[in-house]
Amino acid sequence: MTDAPALRAVGLTKRYGARTAVEGVELTVRPGEVVGFIGPNGAGKTTTLAMVLGLIHPTAGSVDLFGAGGPSRATLRRVGSVVETPAFYPYLTGEANLRALAKASELPETRVAAVLDRVGLGSRGKSKFKTYSLGMKGRLGLAAALLGDPDLLILDEPTNGFDPQGIHEVRILLRELAGQGKAVLLSSHLLTEVEQVIDRLAIIRQGKVVAQGTAAELLRTDPALTLRVADPAAAVSALTAAGFTATAQADGRVRVTTDRAEAVNRTLAEAGLFLSELRVDEARLESLFLDLTGAAPAAGSAA
Amino acid sequence: MGAFRAELYKLRLRPVTFWLLGLGALFLLMALVTRFLGPMTTGEIAPAGVVLRRGIASAGGLLASGLIILAGSFVGSEFTWGTARTVVARGEGRAFLLVGKLGAMAVFAAVFVGLAVVVSLGFGLLAPVHLTPVDPTAAAAPAIIGRTMLVSVLGPLPYAALALLLAVVARSPTLATAGGLLYAVVGERIIGGLALWLGGVLGWSWLGWLPKLLVGTNLAALERWAAGPVAEASLTEAIGLVPVGGPLLAAVVLSVHLLVAVGLAVVLFDRYDLKAGS
Predict the structure, then answer these.
(1) What distance in Å separates the CA atoms of residue A269 and residue A259, rounded to the nearest whole number?
(2) Per-residue model confidence as pLDDT tens digits over B170-186
(3) What pTM value is reported for the model?
(4) Which pLDDT score is estimated for B236?
(5) Are B91 and A72 inside 8 Å of each other by CB?
(6) Inter-chain contact B91–A81, Cβ cutoff 8 Å?
(7) DSSP code per residue over B113-179
(8) Where are the beta strands (DSSP E) in chain B?
(9) Cβ pair A91:B88 closer than 8 A
(10) 3-class DSSP assignment, residue A37
(11) Which has the closest alpha carbon to B213: B233, B191, B232?
(12) CB-based contact A174:A199 (threshold 8 Å)
């Protein structure tokens, strides 16, 4: 029972008439890890999370929480969540909103002040929700998710509207929670916002998970060097003759599939070619994400 | 129980609750002034118990509208604000959520009737009403007033349940409130009148039974029972529908209305996909 994943989704599918929003999603989150659930807008992230939380009825597939079955009163009591825009009662203060949730969930209201402080809303807890900025609403959503001291946190774009300081604080908080053995599923369309905090990630595109694993597993590619010389064609010939795989690039550089920089340098020097630039190609998660999701680089980095 | 406590807490902090209580008290006072101090009633001798019972009975009528507004707003807003999603995602059963709201509204109804008692007593004491020094129905008065309070609290609940159902269907406080009020004020009379007329024209006797199944008809029957020996003609005639059967039958029919509306609301709510923004 203790070894059971906090969340296991199997073949999760949602269809709306002829349109398939999510198809066959497999997802596992274990205690103590932060899993990123990344995909462009409209990829099916929120629909998947809503099915996990029992907000949407799946067309097919199943969800298991803590090895204790699907979303139910018993299992969801161990889950804290923020699904898309945090929704609260506008006429209540932040504190009163949390008290109402605590009463509904039969949780001790003594945690209300602590979680407000934890998310940096301690001084604004007495203000009405309708007066909150977008970032403050997000913070209150996070406070609500933490209210029941959950074993699994499901956060959908939790830092939407946060300032850089707030984003940094959330990253620290999530790592702390993972350190305490909590499981975190973190959904975002911005890879750059989550890559610093996640242990594993699942990339979703058009309703399907197209890649899943640790960053190292996903970025497992052949090492490569990029170099610049006066005569790229001669460099390619010399390197090929020496047994390297080298190709001339459109920008005048040469790409060599190896991590033996010293040997490459020696080969070229012996051929009378001298380097003006040599760098190791680093496989980047963002490039992989963009390749897999087909998102344009500008949109992916600016959204 | 948690859902009920949470709903009660929100109701207590919601401005519309106090607007409805305030407006209800004001309208009740106006109804008492019109009834006992108006030009048509000059010089009338009114037993003290009648003033109180009349006030409570009027509160019941006002409460039906108040509860429709409250139910429509109370439930419909959960969809427009997206808070239904927040609550359900925390594992609260959808049925518990709706039943908790209905329970909170029953408490509101009790408070409303309590307020009516205070307003009626205050009116009886302070207004220049010609009260008889000894109430001729004194022996029966406590029972009559108790029955009137019961009917005033419970009678409007089927209307509240209807507004709750409409809110779940429409997912909007405005549509639910407007629909509920339209039905209670106009719809029932049209249905009742149409059924009676068509029954006569077509010779379909079963259509004659239709008005007797309506909420308003049975509420009127209960009000007649509550009024007891001092029943005022104007009270039952004002309903304009044919009272049917005894109080027990009327209570059963109202309970069925309540159960059907809440049951349908629960089933529909349970099947809804609470998508983001819904």
Answers:
(1) 17
(2) 988 999 999 999 998 89
(3) 0.79
(4) 42
(5) yes
(6) no
(7) HHHHHHHHHHHHHHS--EE-SS-TTTTTHHHHHHHHHHHHHHTTHHHHHHHHHHHHHH--HHHHHHH
(8) 45-46, 130-131
(9) no
(10) strand
(11) B191
(12) no
The verdict on B83 touching A (C-beta cutoff 8 Å) is yes
The pairing of beta strand A34-38 with beta strand A200-205: parallel
Backbone angles phi, psi at B202, to 5 degrees: -90, -10
Chain B residues inside the 8 Å CB shell of A144? 86
* Strand-pair partners of A227: A254, A278
Contact A211, A218 (CB under 8 A): yes
Query: Cβ–Cβ contacts within 10 Å for residue B107, how many?
Result: 15
* Any B CB within 8 A of A53 CB: yes
Q: Between chains, do B87 and A101 touch, taking CB under 8 Å as contact?
A: yes
Largest CA distance in chain A: 79
Q: Is A56 on the interface with B (CB under 8 A)?
A: yes
**Nearest alpha-carbon partner for A286 in A187, A175, A190, A186:** A190
Taking CB atoms and an 8 Å cutoff, what residues of chain B touch A106? Answer: 1-2
In degrees and rounded to multiples of 5, residue A188 shows phi and psi of -160, 155
Half-sphere exposure of B269 (CA within 13 A, CB side): 27
Kind and range of the H or E run holding B4:
helix B2-13
Q: Could you say which residues of chain B have pLDDT below 70?
A: 38-49, 128-141, 228-245, 276-278
Amino acid at B231: A
Tell how strand A277-281 and strand A254-256 pair up. unpaired
Cβ of B233 under 8 Å from any chain A Cβ? no
User: Residue A301's pLDDT is what?
Assistant: 35
Alpha-carbon gap, residue A165 to A172, rounded angstroms: 11
* Probe site for chain B from A77, A82, A91, A152 (most B CB atoms < 10 A): A91
Q: What are phi and psi of B241, to 5 degrees?
A: -125, 160
CB contact under 8 A, B6 and A101: yes
Inter-chain residue contact A148 with B275, CB threshold 8 Å: no
pLDDT at residue number B235: 43
Q: Is the ipTM of this complex over 0.85?
A: no
From the list A84, A295, A83, A292, the residue with the least C-alpha distance to A203 is A292
Nearest CA in chain B to A73: B91
